[in-house]
């Protein structure tokens, strides 16, 4: 199983990874925040048993509907994209009148004399995901199929591991293991220090989202 138990959608238990899974996980996070009920401590896929407005009456019916849609057991009945999920959330808070005007901050423009590049590293293709810093190292996936390990202070190349597909997500790091998904349908666990493969898990679809790791899972 990929992801955190309680937050992961049913299809991830079958090895299927898709954007609909990310929408489910975000819905699970919002449900947790609204109800203060940790899904990791509840039976899997039981959000419908913890009705949001019964636990927290301050939540509007419109907002509850949006979260329940994101948590639908059937991925085809969830929002088709994170953008549509966002629009539904915005519409719900506008309807209830609780949308707070975002704070604006002064934009500070720095000159070249005030910003100094410490180091840079050139990969063989686009970097589409976010790097992760872990124990003095930078780990970053690249669309050239590789995940790179660099010294965080100097940018020195330490190792790279080649998958068979492009990498678009952010690596996860825990217990000296780096986890990364690839468009070759595999989730990889790689030794943080030596760049050696620890294990792989094959899924039925391309992995374009970012894995997460918590408490050994």
Automatic annotation (TrEMBL):
<dbReference type="InterPro" id="IPR018391">
    <property type="entry name" value="PQQ_b-propeller_rpt"/>
</dbReference>
<dbReference type="InterPro" id="IPR002372">
    <property type="entry name" value="PQQ_rpt_dom"/>
</dbReference>
<dbReference type="InterPro" id="IPR000719">
    <property type="entry name" value="Prot_kinase_dom"/>
</dbReference>
<dbReference type="GO" id="GO:0043041">
    <property type="term" value="P:amino acid activation for nonribosomal peptide biosynthetic process"/>
</dbReference>
<protein>
    <recommendedName>
        <fullName>Protein kinase domain-containing protein</fullName>
    </recommendedName>
</protein>
<dbReference type="GO" id="GO:0005524">
    <property type="term" value="F:ATP binding"/>
</dbReference>
<dbReference type="InterPro" id="IPR052091">
    <property type="entry name" value="Beta-ala_Activ/Resist"/>
</dbReference>
<dbReference type="GO" id="GO:0004672">
    <property type="term" value="F:protein kinase activity"/>
</dbReference>
<dbReference type="InterPro" id="IPR011009">
    <property type="entry name" value="Kinase-like_dom_sf"/>
</dbReference>
<dbReference type="InterPro" id="IPR015943">
    <property type="entry name" value="WD40/YVTN_repeat-like_dom_sf"/>
</dbReference>
<dbReference type="InterPro" id="IPR011047">
    <property type="entry name" value="Quinoprotein_ADH-like_sf"/>
</dbReference>
<feature type="domain" description="Protein kinase">
    <location>
        <begin position="1"/>
        <end position="90"/>
    </location>
</feature>
<dbReference type="Pfam" id="PF13360">
    <property type="entry name" value="PQQ_2"/>
</dbReference>
